[in-house]
Write a structure and sequence with these properties.
The complex is a heterodimer of chains A (717) and B (149). By secondary structure, chain A is of the alpha+beta class. Chain A contains 22 helices and 27 strands. Chain A has three domains: 2-207, 2-Layer Sandwich (Aldehyde Oxidoreductase, domain 4); 217-288 and 347-422, Aldehyde oxidase/xanthine dehydrogenase, molybdopterin binding domain (Aldehyde Oxidoreductase, domain 4); 295-338 and 434-716, Aldehyde oxidase/xanthine dehydrogenase, molybdopterin binding domain (Aldehyde Oxidoreductase, domain 4), CATH 3.30.365. In chain A, strands 10-11-8-18-15-16-17 form a seven-stranded mixed β-sheet. A five-stranded mixed β-sheet of chain A has the order 13-21-20-19-14, sandwiched between helices. In chain A, helix 2 (19-26) crosses helix 6 (118-145), helix 4 runs parallel beside helix 6 (118-145) and helix 12 (367-378) runs parallel beside helix 13. Chain B has a five-stranded mixed β-sheet, sandwiched between helices. The chains are: A alpha+beta (717), B alpha+beta (149). At the A-B interface, helix 19 of A face helix 1, helix 2, helix 3, helix 4 and helix 5 of B. Chain B: InterPro entries: 2Fe-2S-bd (IPR002888), 2Fe-2S-bd_dom_sf (IPR036884), 2Fe-2S_ferredoxin-like_sf (IPR036010), 2Fe-2S_ferredoxin-type (IPR001041), 2Fe2S_fd_BS (IPR006058), Beta-grasp_dom_sf (IPR012675), Diverse_Oxidoreductases (IPR051452). Chain B: GO terms for molecular function: 2 iron, 2 sulfur cluster binding; metal ion binding; oxidoreductase activity.
Chain lengths: 717, 149
């Protein structure tokens, strides 16, 4: 069971990733009434499965996962195009509609994009979808020509019969292919035959992003549409008490004012009138039960909770006794703050609610949940809610929740014209669902040879999983909360890992890039450095010695060390820090070089990443995710913490929630290990590696061990 | 009524004097390439050019505009430098989510127009007002250098 902890929500892998489940997901019914109707409705459209659609307009690929910058539209299209035998410039793509029966992510048990699971989920099923479609198209052509499919060949969306010199395009033969039986278990190419997978294929979603024409959710334009913006209580959970409606209505361009107990919005001709109107409302709120909430009281309750035993997640070979009998003993407390997502596109949704149906335009990581949110707020059946899932200007886990869509639908349920509801940055940041605060107690014992003989780790924090996917929270164990803490890449047999669930009152916590792995790797990989220091060993050598049974982990560590020049001496004030991980199915070593200046400012100089994520679909995407993941992780590890005073969030915009800028960004070098293993996830791996590498580099530069994030101000203090 | 000259075209708009150009572009003229990110000139997503100067459209109100030529992301392809920067962005595969990239490109064009061969330090200086949450900074530097090469 324990090895399943390596993948967040890995609990599902065994039950759903089986072949039967995958085939179910890709096959449309081909017999009986529904199949007949599907083909009758679409006439000349060839829809062999949930992912491929070919008609007179061309070849369309349906994207089961949402694109928010990670490059999944390109990777998904590459997987299908490889087997379909088309070029990427011959296809167009569209977002899948909400339909759990066809588009469920088998790792997440939902139609969801997150947890670095997309490529792992799609690796087989999208290639099968492409292969099945190709086989049917070829059979249709062969049938037309009175030859066998084996005599035909395919290239770039065209079928050739060289013997007779005939050829036909997929588009031309599509209507005939619809009558061909769906092939069972279509064979897939041997990797040596790959033409697209493994190449640095250009992204398919970028041309419109450099000329301003791409329509994100916030850019939707509809006939008769108005623009709205909202306010919620500064004290979280506070209720609306008083507002000056007349003053708002006096603002030119203000059209309507709508409210619920928790939010009020002004609808206007444009965002400016809506904002002016909202200001004019002079809204008053009743603080409610959270009025005295502050960060200090939350942390002090967590500290108390962390003294109790937690639910045991792993307990091998009595680690407590092993530590008690060890020559060298270490104990430490680590803390990781609440974090906001702060994607650059503020939260928004556009709704057109009518008496008998509704339409939603939004970028969401969970389209079925989005549909249900509108249905429950309006009382309409879910099938009467159309969801248009648009590309997103950054998500980082925020759009795995649909609270903003629910709020929007509740506010707008009596409005019958289309309204685009936009959160200001301040509303977005202060009413985010935050990454949890974690309070970690760790201990370790080492023998006279400096070898690790026992380790304990007690994580105290919120369980996002228990809220987001209650069936996955079994026996009080949250596999995500202990991701990378219960199991490490190292040779260790004596480990006690516990989880103390602590839900901070008045707060909802949420997924965030890497969540469990990001937090736990900061703790574990910092603590491994502490162990090395305690037994006076080099942090690299100390790790190497514990990797006798993990060649892939050792290989990335050695590669990073070599590329970073680990043994090259550094000038005064500089330091290098290591972090090593196996997370999301991917091995990664990170060596970060920094300088702490005489003014105690941390300068980020060079980040070296060595990554083995198994077989690679697009090496450029892997590189981009590593670079971007490191920058994202550096923002939080250096600067970020969400705090509360009297029930309100203290940070509200990028002036108080500082993110890394280009002049602060290090050089980042990414080295990829060639591998034929199954693909691992890459969207979060880079981010998860950062905090420990940074803390260890600061220790190397200054001798100061930092155990509480963020670090920049702590170094200066 | 106010006349705005945007990307070589004249537009008549009837909007309040204190209305930021950002919302005039997006909500009145339907030009949504210019993005809203923070509203307080911290993120640079709304960067446009007034004549040749890069400005934040969220802080540029109607009464501050007096006949200057406005250029937005939708208009840069028609200039030589703009087309080169867009091509470099695609060639170096800079873009991830893309939401900040309109602003990044507008700032890069403004930099290159006045300094055709910027150093890393000059790029950092000119581009540090533009936040990218996806972390494309490494490739932005590369792309700007490739335009100068």
């Amino acid at each position: 069971m324990i090895h399943n902890l390596h993948s967040r929500r890995g609990f599902l892998r065994g039950t759903v990733l089986g072949t039967a489940g995958l085939l179910l997901a890709i096959q449309m019914p081909r017999t009986g009434k529904s199949a007949t109707r599907a083909f009758a409705d679409t006439q000349a459209t060839f829809i062999p499965n949930a992912f491929v659609k070919i008609d007179g307009m061309g070849i369309k690929l349906i994207m089961p996962h949402t694109e928010f910058g990670q490059g999944i539209y390109t990777s998904s299209a590459m997987l299908m195009a490889e087997e379909l035998e088309v070029r990427l410039d011959q296809v167009s793509v569209e977002a899948a509609p909400p339909d759990l029966s066809k588009y469920m992510d088998p790792f997440l048990y939902d139609q969801a994009t997150g947890g670095s699971t997309s490529t792992r989920a799609d690796w087989v099923r999208l290639r099968q979808a492409g292969a099945a479609a190709r086989i049917m198209l070829v059979e249709a052509a062969a049938h037309e020509w009175g030859v066998t499919p084996g005599e035909c060949r395919v290239e770039a969306g065209k079928i050739y019969h060289d013997g007779s010199g005939r050829n036909v395009t997929y588009v031309e033969i599509a209507s005939k292919a619809a009558a061909i039986p769906l092939p069972k278990d279509p064979p897939l190419k041997d990797p040596s035959q790959f033409k697209i997978i493994g190449t640095r294929a250009k992204r398919i979603d970028t041309a419109e992003k450099v000329n301003g024409s791409l329509v994100y959710g916030i850019d939707v334009k509809l006939p008769g549409m108005k623009i709205a913006t909202l306010a919620m209580s500064p004290v979280l959970g506070g209720k609306l008490t008083r507002y000056d409606e007349a003053a708002a209505r006096a603002i030119p361009g203000v059209v309507d004012i709508v409210k619920t107990d928790e939010a009020i919005a002004v609808i206007g001709d444009h965002m400016w009138s809506a904002q002016q109107g909202l200001d004019a409302l002079s809204v008053e709120w009743e603080a409610g039960p959270n009025g005295s909430m502050n960060l200090e009281s939350i942390v002090s309750k967590m500290e108390e909770a962390s003294r109790q035993n937690g639910v045991t997640v792993r307990n091998d070979a009595d680690a407590v006794s092993a530590i008690a009998g060890a020559k060298t003993k270490l104990e430490a407390v680590y803390q990781s703050p609440f974090l906001s997502h702060s994607a650059l596109e503020p939260m928004n949704c556009t709704l057109h609610i009518q008496d008998d149906k509704a339409e939603l335009w939004v970028g969401t990581q969970v389209p079925v949940r989005a549909q249900n949110a509108v249905a429950s707020a309006t009382g309409l059946p879910a099938e009467k809610v159309t969801v248009n899932n648009l590309l997103i200007g950054g998500a980082f886990g925020r759009r795995l929740d649909v609270d903003t869509i629910e709020i929007g639908a509740r506010l707008l349920k009596d409005i019958r014209y289309p309204v685009k509801l936009i959160w200001t940055r301040e509303q977005d940041m202060t009413h985010d669902f935050f990454r949890p605060y974690y309070y970690d107690r760790v201990a370790a014992g080492l023998d006279e040879d400096g070898r690790l003989v026992g380790r304990t780790h007690r994580v105290t924090g919120s369980s996002i999983l228990a809220r987001w996917a209650p069936p996955a929270f079994v026996n009080g164990i949250d596999p995500d909360a202990l991701d990378c803490a219960a199991e490490t890449p190292y040779d260790e047999s004596s480990v006690l890992a516990e989880f103390v669930r602590f839900e901070p009152e008045g707060l909802v916590t949420a997924w965030w890039r890497g969540v469990g792995a990001t937090h736990n790797l900061f703790v574990i990989e910092s603590f491994v450095d502490e162990m090395a220091t305690a037994v006076e060993q080099d942090p690299l050598e100390f790790r190497r010695k514990m990797l006798t049974r993990n060649p892939r982990a050792l290989a990335v560590l050695n590669l990073a060390a070599e590329k970073a020049g680990w043994t090259n001496p550094l000038p005064e004030g500089r330091g290098r820090g290591i972090s090593l991980q196996f997370a999301f199915g991917t091995y990664l070593a990170h060596i970060l070089e920094i300088e702490v200046t005489a003014e105690k400012e941390v300068k980020l100089l060079r980040s070296v990443i060595a990554v083995d994520c198994g077989v690679v679909v697009n090496p450029d995407t892997v590189e981009a995710q590593m670079q971007g993941g490191v920058i994202f992780g550096l923002s939080s590890a250096m600067f970020n913490a969400i705090t509360f005073t009297d029930g309100a969030v203290d940070q509200s915009n990028f002036d108080t929630y500082r993110v890394l800028r280009i002049d602060e960004a290090p050089r980042i070098d990414v080295f990829q290990v060639k591998s034929a293993e199954l693909p691992g996830g890459v969207g979060e791996a880079g981010t998860a590696s950062v905090a420990a590498a940074l803390a260890n580099a600061i220790f190397a530069a200054t001798g100061k061990r930092m155990r509480s994030l963020p670090l920049a101000d702590a170094v200066a203090a | 009524m106010k006349t705005l000259e945007i990307n070589g075209q004249s537009h008549q708009v009837d909007v309040p004097d204190d209305m930021p150009l950002l919302w005039v572009l997006r909500d009145v003229l339907g030009m949504t390439g210019t993005k809203f990110g923070c509203g307080i000139a911290q993120c640079g997503a709304c960067t446009v050019h007034l004549d040749d100067t890069a400005v934040r459209a969220c802080q540029t109100t109607m009464d501050m505009i007096d006949g200057e030529k406005i250029t937005t992301i939708e208009g840069v392809a028609s200039t030589e430098i703009g087309a080169k920067v867009q091509a470099a962005w695609l060639d170096k595969e800079v873009v991830q989510c893309g939401y900040c990239q309109s602003g990044q490109i507008m700032s890069a064009i403004s930099l290159l127009a006045s300094n055709p061969k910027p150093t890393d330090a000059e790029i950092d200086e000119a581009m540090s007002g533009n936040i990218c949450r996806c972390g494309t900074y490494v490739r932005i530097r590369e792309a700007i250098h490739s335009v100068t090469a």
